[in-house]
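Put briefly, the fold is written as integer tokens. One such record reads:
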Amino acid sequence: MALKCGIVGLPNVGKSTLFNALTAAKALAANYPFATKDPNVGIITVPDPRLDELAKLVSPEKVIPTTVEIVDIAGLIKGASKGEGLGNQFLANIREVDAIVHVVRCFVDDNVVHVDGNVDPVRDKEIIDMELIFKDMDTVEKRLDKLRKASKTGDKIVVKQLELCQSLQQHLEDEKPARSWEVEPAFEEVMNEMMLLTAKPVIYVCNVDEESALEGNDLTEAFKNEVKDENAEVILISAAIEADIIELDDPEERLEFVKEMGLDEPGVNRVIRACYSILNLITYFTAGEKEVRAWTIVKETKAPGAAGVIHTDFEKGFIRAEVIHYEDFVQYGSEAAVKDAGKLGIEGKEYVVLDGDVMHFRFNV
């Protein structure tokens, strides 16, 4: 399944620098291919050391990682919900993504002008939040008009949906995002159809100066306190450091530079993993002589559904799955050795795929 994340933020907060770092991050873990679809959309590979380890053991002809599509969405200004600046483009682009990477500026630099005159990440977040909420309020009001007309028939389901939609409208008017409103089963279909902007999961990226990349600063502390009740991940990244990393052509040099900066890994790796986490996604692998490949599925997916990610025929004609847990594959070193050790599982339609499973499907069509 394709994962699409949109980078948002006010102008001059470091969005484009982060986008450039993400789209050049392919060589930090391994030398995988990278493709650019157009100037502000990139397909990037997801760093996963397990894929590299399996490739070492199997020595396949090809290694294919899973990918994330990253969209560098136009900077937003006040009034975007009414079409100011590039507002219409900004909001239309957000509607298309699965998750939002919200970049806020947490560094002071007189050479980089702030659109509102001074650095205040809490205020910046509120500006974008309110523009998205305003747009969602318009969407909800249009749906309410339809439900009011439809409810005149007395249909109990429609009447209930009208009641819930009014509750959602009040929630938005209280300046709260749709993702913090509890969706009842009777309203799930309507909610999905509206594609509300503030219903999308969000990751906050605090763009800090180099000295604050590890521990943060007063600005990041104030921001974390502001979002503490949102249950959202906050990641500290120095876009300046990430920009320096991508200037190095050799992957080994890049990794060495990361260590010299006192970091365990590039910040972009954490952003990608966070996108996976908030969307409740995991990875399973297929491994053979022709290719070792990573596949993305939602947690709690059963074996036939996982097979369907490869091809719909695999799901329709599913017979069974041969499963090796990643740790066992690494411990024994090959599929044959795993079989000899009695560690290969034969699973049916009710098997729930685990993160890191190495799988082979039997099917008949």
